[in-house]
């Protein structure tokens, strides 16, 4: 209840104090009860547990007294056994030393005897036996006192070293004799195996390395002699480069299994660590000599400097003057009158202007040879590196660490430097030079069907060669940069230039002084030829691009230069293979396809607007003039005789679309035809939807649609029926006898894919006059 006054508060406080006192009294009683329980438990423990503990303690002390003597006896026995064990170990070690020293003495004596008898097999076995003795025993005073004899008085360390050196020297001499002078493969293999039997793995590998380096050096003499002669303008140095690494690969393939079988052990190096470093130094020196000679004879630095200083003017001139009157017909006259005159226009005493100095440009043929050789250098080197990885079972980093290169520059670094500083700049220049050359010799072939020019054939033959060469370097980065340059250049200096030519020639018809007459007809004829030619150029270029992409993207082609395995097969994360990366690079060619398509679509529209639209408008106006489908029987019979729509279309169509089918490519003609078809059918449909139809008129309309479809199908075989779908459905609706709301469902049940909406169907049904 609420406390309303001070008395209520005092009463509540008194009540709380009383409760607190009662609670305190109960707690004190509980504590007293607990204390009594603890005392009772303590008394019980003293009376029951303590006597038992005392009894157990007395028994333990008695047992300890009984076992004390036994423990002392066991301790004395353990000390004596430990002394016996130590003495036994010393005796065992002494026996081991004695046996080892006896074996060492016997092995040294037998080794010396074998050397005198030229018994190399026994000598190798005795050498291995003596060498297996521990160095601590050989160097001990005991061995120094026990091993020397009258015949071998020197300390065992010196004796073994001298005998082993004599044996290995004889083995090396015999190995070199049977490999270089006698060419006895069986004996050479025998003496090489004796190095392993004697435990001299490193010395055997060193002997074989010397032989291998001498053989490679001898093979390189022929290459060095060829480097002195004057090379022809052909891939001469790349052939020498390929010969060098082919010979080394064959040598490694034949000899590496033999060396590892005879001289590879668990604790000793094999072919990779023992022989490969020497071979690497030799092939690096020979490779650098080839590259040095190539650099000097091909004048690489001069070519790069000249290419960087070159100016490209053809494309700039085309941008400045994209359309020249008469060029498409091959009758362009020079704008410089002085060139056409047999004498100068200046007076004899007037000094003529000094002609500008002729620009120094590299020859495209020379640059192509240099680029081809560089690509072959890189391709052969990549192939050789892959061979080393596959045959020796090691990664490139492990091969590099094993092969201590003695030459100033590693071949891998030098090849990469040449690709970066020579191949890419020269390739960029060759690409632009070839493109400008293709533009400069661009000639229209107006007699061809379809009409075209030399531009796409020249350009895409060049493009295919350049991209193939870039991919043949086996370098993803090089291929990526070259393809990026090619795609960018095709966009700016080919597609844009062709579109610029089309736009410029089209604008030539808008000159105010070009009034109707022969001059305008001639200009229109030239614009028509120019637009047809360059529309076909764009379409053919799209086809060529797709073909090049399909050929270069195929694994059958790319697998020649790129591996289909990840570079790091042990990586925890997924890493794409070189082949997949190369395919991704080539896929960038596809970015050109939409650009061709958009340019063609736009220019087809401009061709229609410029040359066809006015004629098409006149034809459509003539077709739809006085057209009616409110026919009685007499009018229906008259239209059957006149066949008005079909006959007018047949008469006027060739005037609207003269010879476009033969002159345009198939896809370009299809685009233009569809544009004309839209210009015909859309106004026709709009007019039809504003008419009324008698029953006979609906039949006549259905016949007209069928005749139009039949006639136009003769001029283009694909895509026509889709354009006529709405008109055919209108004819279907007009000729139905069902009620309005049932026509749409009837058509759906018959499998018609309606292009008309239900509201349009209802509107068409409302046009019928029943």
TrEMBL record:
Keywords: Golgi apparatus, Membrane, Protein transport, Transport. Residues 339-359 are annotated as: Disordered. It comes from Malassezia psittaci. One of its GO terms (cellular component) is Golgi membrane. GO terms for biological process: protein transport. The keyword Nucleotide-binding does not apply. It comes from the Eukaryota. This is Conserved oligomeric Golgi complex subunit 4.
């Amino acid at each position: 209840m609420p406390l309303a006054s001070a008395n209520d508060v005092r009463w509540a406080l008194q009540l709380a104090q009383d409760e607190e006192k009662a609670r305190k009294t109960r707690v004190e009683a509980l504590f007293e009860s607990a204390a009594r329980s603890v005392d009772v438990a303590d008394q019980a423990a003293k009376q029951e547990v303590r006597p038992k503990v005392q009894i157990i303690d007395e028994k333990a002390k008695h047992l300890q007294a009984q076992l004390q003597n036994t423990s002392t006896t066991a301790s004395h026995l353990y000390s004596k056994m430990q002394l016996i064990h130590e003495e036994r170990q010393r005796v065992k070690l002494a026996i081991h030393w004695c046996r080892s020293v006896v074996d060492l003495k016997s092995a040294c004596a037998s080794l010396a005897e074998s050397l005198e008898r030229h018994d190399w097999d026994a000598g190798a076995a005795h050498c291995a036996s003596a060498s297996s003795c521990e160095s601590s025993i050989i160097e001990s005073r005991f061995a120094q006192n026990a091993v020397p004899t009258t015949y071998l008085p020197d300390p065992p360390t010196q004796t073994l070293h001298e005998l082993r050196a004599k044996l290995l020297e004889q083995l090396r001499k015999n190995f070199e004799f049977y490999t270089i002078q006698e060419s006895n493969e069986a004996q050479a293999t025998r003496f090489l195996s004796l190095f392993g039997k004697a435990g001299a793995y490193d010395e055997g590998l060193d002997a074989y390395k010397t032989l291998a380096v001498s053989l490679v050096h001898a093979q390189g003499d022929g290459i060095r002699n060829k480097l002195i002669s004057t090379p022809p303008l052909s891939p001469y140095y790349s052939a020498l480069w390929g010969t060098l690494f082919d010979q080394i690969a064959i040598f490694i393939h034949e000899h590496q299994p033999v060396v590892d079988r005879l001289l590879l052990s668990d604790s000793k190096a094999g072919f990779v660590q023992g022989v490969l470093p020497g071979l690497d130094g030799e092939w690096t020196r020979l490779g650098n000599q080839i590259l040095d000679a190539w650099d000097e004879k091909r004048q690489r630095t001069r070519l790069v400097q000249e290419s960087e200083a070159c100016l490209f003017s053809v494309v700039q001139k085309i941008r400045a003057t994209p359309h020249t009157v008469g060029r498409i017909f091959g009758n362009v006259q020079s704008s410089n009158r002085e060139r056409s005159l047999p004498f100068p226009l200046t007076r004899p005493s007037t000094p003529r202007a000094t002609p500008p100095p002729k620009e120094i440009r590299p020859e495209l043929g020379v640059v192509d040879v240099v680029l081809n050789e560089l690509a072959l250098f890189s391709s052969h080197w990549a192939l050789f590196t892959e061979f080393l990885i596959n045959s020796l079972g090691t990664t490139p980093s492990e091969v590099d660490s094993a092969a201590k290169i003695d030459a100033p520059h590693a071949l891998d670094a030098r090849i990469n430097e040449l690709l970066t500083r020579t191949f890419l700049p020269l390739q960029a220049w060759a690409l632009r030079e070839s493109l400008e050359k293709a533009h400069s010799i661009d000639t229209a072939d107006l007699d061809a069907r379809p009409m075209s020019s030399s531009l796409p054939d020249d350009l895409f033959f060049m493009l295919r060669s350049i991209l193939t060469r870039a991919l043949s370097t086996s370098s993803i980065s090089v291929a990526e940069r070259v393809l990026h340059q090619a795609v960018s250049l095709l966009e700016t200096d080919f597609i844009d230039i062709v579109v610029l030519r089309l736009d410029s020639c089209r604008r030539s018809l808008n000159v105010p002084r070009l009034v109707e007459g022969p001059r305008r007809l001639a200009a229109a004829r030239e614009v028509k030829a120019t637009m047809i030619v360059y529309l076909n150029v764009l379409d053919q270029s799209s086809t060529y691009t797709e073909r090049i992409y399909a050929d270069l993207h195929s694994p059958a082609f790319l697998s020649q230069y790129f591996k289909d395995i990840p570079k790091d097969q042990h990586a925890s994360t997924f890493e794409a293979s070189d082949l997949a990366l190369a395919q991704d690079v080539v896929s960038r060619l596809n970015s050109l396809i939409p650009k061709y398509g958009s340019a063609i679509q736009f220019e087809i529209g401009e061709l229609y607007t410029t040359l066809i639209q006015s004629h098409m408008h006149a034809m459509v106006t003539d077709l739809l003039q006085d057209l009616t489908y409110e026919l009685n029987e007499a009018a229906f019979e008259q239209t059957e005789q006149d066949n008005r729509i079909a006959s007018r279309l047949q008469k006027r169509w060739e005037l609207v679309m003269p010879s476009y089918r033969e002159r345009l490519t198939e896809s370009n003609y299809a685009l233009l035809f569809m544009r004309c078809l839209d210009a015909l059918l859309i106004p026709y449909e709009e007019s039809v939807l504003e008419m009324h139809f008698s029953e006979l008129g609906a039949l006549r309309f259905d016949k007209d649609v069928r005749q139009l479809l039949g006639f136009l199908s003769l001029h283009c075989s694909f895509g026509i029926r889709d354009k006529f779908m709405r008109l055919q459905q209108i004819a279907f609706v007009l000729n139905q006898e069902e009620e309005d709301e049932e026509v749409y469902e009837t058509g759906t049940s018959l499998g018609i894919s309606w292009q008309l909406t239900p509201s349009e169907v209802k509107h068409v049904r409302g046009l019928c006059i029943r």
